[in-house]
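Q&A log
Question type: sequence-to-structure
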Amino acid sequence: MSESGKINLKGLTREELVGHLAGIGKERYRADQIIRWLYLQRVTEIERMSNLSRSCRERLESFAYIGQIECLREQIAQDGTRKYLFRLNDGHTIETVLIGDKSRLTLCLSTQVGCRMGCSFCLTGRSGFERQLSAAEIVDQVIQVAEIIDAGGAARGAITNIVLMGMGEPLDNLEEVIKALEIMKYADGLQFSSRRITLSTCGLAPQIIELGQRLEVSLAISLNAAYDTLRSQLMPINRRYNLATLMAACRSYPHTNQRRITFEYILFAGLNDSLDDARRLVELIGSLPAKINLIPFNEHPELSFKKPQQKQITDFMEYLQRHNLTVMTRRSKGADISAACGQLREAVGGKSQ
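Response status: OK
Response body:
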């Protein structure tokens, strides 16, 4: 809440909106009208919702408002990736990344200010954890970037895919993330289908199970090691939910041949890139319908990890392919503007000035 305790309309699901409207004596179909105004017309003032009566708008304004996050900066990488720095109403900042690839425009969303998972290779967690993002702040990243695109300030075309791989651990903010994704999927709103949305997690096993029970989206697991000792070293969450627990949760997650679980495996030179590591990975995945994204580490002066040599990457990939795993080597984009995997963080000094 903000604006003297009012509710941000962008954070309400359809049913929540229906409930609030019922409380002021307004019909259910008004919720559909408001959703179209918010996400198709992208209005910024309730007063502009012209097919609502004046009395309805006045009653709506008595408890609600249309909030906006503010774009402070856009950076463009050599490969065309764009990174946006947004200021939230309390002064904190988050980063959102737009990635162009052939016919797709993928928007990488943040779900927290900072992160508390503490992965040793990720700069976001080094900034510490400040707070959760609201559903409205998650959804508004999509709206604001769409506005920038429409104004000619970014790549041509509409956003085609959503990935929750920005700042924060999405499943550590489960309720607000589920609300935001439900809102994004409205056919009369932002219109993203389940197959166009991917949520990436470091491995909160109980929340993976709950997500699969409540919402249909693609799942990506940040794996990075195939045995517990190394994974616990890289990712402290593994001490709470080890690989056996994580894989059991993955096997419970609804999947089809069209929606296999993606395992993201960052390759670190001399650490997890040997053929023994590849063998362990094959054994870990087993018969689970999955695909592997190999991601050579994005080197950064603040971190001691190194990227493997190309031969090491190729040998690792070919071993997985020989054992019938679907594998892609992903070249992370935007590294020259710190927009690549694990490089997003809040503006220096916490709250932006």
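Response note: Residues 348-353 have pLDDT under 50 and may be disordered.
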